Amino acid sequence: MLRSCLAAGMLLSFALATVTAGTARAEDAAPAAKVSDAEKKAISKACSDQANAKGLHGKERKKFRSECKHKGGKVE
Q1: How many helices (H) and strands (E) does the chain have?
Q2: pLDDT tens digit string along 41-65?
Q3: For labeling, which of 65, 68, 72, 74 is most exposed (least CB within 10 Å)?
Q4: Which whole-number Å values give the CA distances from 56 to 24, 51, 60, 61, in the listed order?
């Protein structure tokens, strides 16, 4: 009985330590550089202008703009 309680306690401690360590690592990660709303709008506008220049419509336009915005508006 004592051994099973001890084993269960050790497993619980290990599980809690693992969860806590995982949470700490996620919090310690440096956040990505914050982009202001004005910068987001400028990037989106630049990507839209590039898509217009290429004559893209529909799914092609959506895919292009998504990639463009992830690259900060510098795709051309």
Answers
A1: 3, 0
A2: 999 999 999 999 999 999 999 999 9
A3: 74
A4: 44, 5, 6, 5
